[in-house]
């Protein structure tokens, strides 16, 4: 007979293309929002310097493999890194379009097709350039018992926001993946206008 008593917030096993992981979903704190998800490996209770990525939802990239951005490649690369290291976590935040939502992101894509860059397109539509709020990360890290993290990101703002939340970030792990024709301008804009630590480009190997 199956055990029907399910402990609150229990993790499930998630075998993936990248190895065996565990997964948990958290009820949203705000009604109507999507649950934050964590996919992780290893017993992280009390651990320091855990490899962690805060990954912002990107339906076009994460689900359909869009090459307009680098999200899908970053997600895959991080899961591979965690698997190789034997422990770590990806906190999947429901912040589609850097928090402006999918419909608005697609509107910005229409402007980008007319020549606007990713920042200009948001501004032209009177949308914030970055509307993300990361407090869910603290909730997840506390739940897993993680003491400090090595954050997988190229975004300096993410590190600063994490520290403001009280998360101890001991190091940054760079994650450059999947530069191609379709996302080169997007990456260049992240580097020039948002200060991302990005080096590579597809021809010369490095962004200028
Ligand atoms: N508004 C907007 N959002 C986008 C666009 N392209 C991708 N995104 C969203 O951007 C988010 C990912 O953020 P990025 O700026 O690519 O990277 P980051 O997460 O800040 O930094 P990394 O940790 O280095 O990946 C996802 O939520 C995507 O849906 C775009 O052209 N406009
Ligand atoms: Zn994306």
UniProtKB/TrEMBL annotation:
Residues holding Zn(2+): 58, 69, 71
Top-level EC class as recorded in UniProt: hydrolase
Pathway: Cofactor biosynthesis; riboflavin biosynthesis; 5-amino-6-(D-ribitylamino)uracil from GTP: step 1/4
Needed co-factor(s): Zn(2+)
Entry keywords, A to Z: GTP-binding, Hydrolase, Metal-binding, Nucleotide-binding, Riboflavin biosynthesis, Zinc
Comment on bound cofactor: Binds 1 zinc ion per subunit.
Record Pfam families: GTP_cyclohydro2 (PF00925)
Ranges where the GTP cyclohydrolase II domain occurs: 11-173
Cellular component, GO annotation: cytosol
Record's protein name: GTP cyclohydrolase-2
